[in-house]
Specification:
CATH class: Alpha Beta
Number of helices: 11
Mean pLDDT: 93
Bound molecules: 2-phosphoglycolic acid
Largest sheet: 8 strands, parallel, barrel
Number of domains: 1
Strand order of the largest sheet: 1-2-3-4-5-6-7-8
Order of helices and strands: EHEHEHEHHEHHEHHEHEH
Helix content: 40-55%
Shape: globular
Low-confidence stretches: none
Strand content: 5-15%
Distance between the termini: 7 Å
CATH architecture: Alpha-Beta Barrel
Length: 262
Amino acid sequence: MRRKLVVGNWKMHGSLAQNKALITSVTAGLRDLDNADFAVCVPAPYLSQAQSLLQGTNVAWGGQNVSQHEYGAYTGAVSARMLADFGCTYALIGHSERRVLIHETNTTAAASFGMALKAGLTPIFCVGETLEERQAGVSEAVVASQMIAILNTLGMDVLSKAVQLRAVIAYEPSWAIGTGRTATPEQAQAMHVFIRKQIAERDASVAGRVRILYGGSVNPSNASQLFVMPDIDGGLIGRCSLNPDEFIEICRTACETSAVAG
Ligand code: PGA
């Protein structure tokens, strides 16, 4: 059975003082919880702070983006190896905000996925459709094209390595991100099954092991309905990851729903 994972995505929020207070509260609140995995993906300048405050706790840390290049003249970019230097476990890849605002494509996201694996990071590959795409009835086609970017570009050998590194897919319909509008548990479950099927067509055992998180306005009130769904293996949490009480509550729910499912 897949162990649940809750990842906070701080986005471009925080300061040294705010992060310290947030991490102190979160680690204290999660200290005794051990049947799920927890992490926070922090802005790159705070990786060193995250490393020093989270080392030795049960909360891992990661970056919010990985360059598709290994190194070079790419001003402002952050490489996978740099994240690894700061002890990151995870790296978000292809988040919809980057796809929309920074024009990342399936091709660049797939390349970043490969870079993350090469550096020994666990990629959290984000997929999801826009509101227009959902209304046009093409959500599955969009998500399939995003999945194909990694499945075809990288091949199953790489994907098996990805599974060893416990790679994660995050389904984040962009119409649910930061909007307070969540996919229903049934909508999310259906898409998670669809994503798992894309992988299973290539390798059933890999498909059974990949964790698929749901992201998009997860909060303490809707987390349990989402997390009890059989193919929802946890959450990628934006807004509520900035509030220690809400984040802890969501993590607690992940542990409780793991216990029920197990
Ligand atoms: P949200 O963000 O929880 O604020 O909707 C989720 C995300 O973008 O990862």
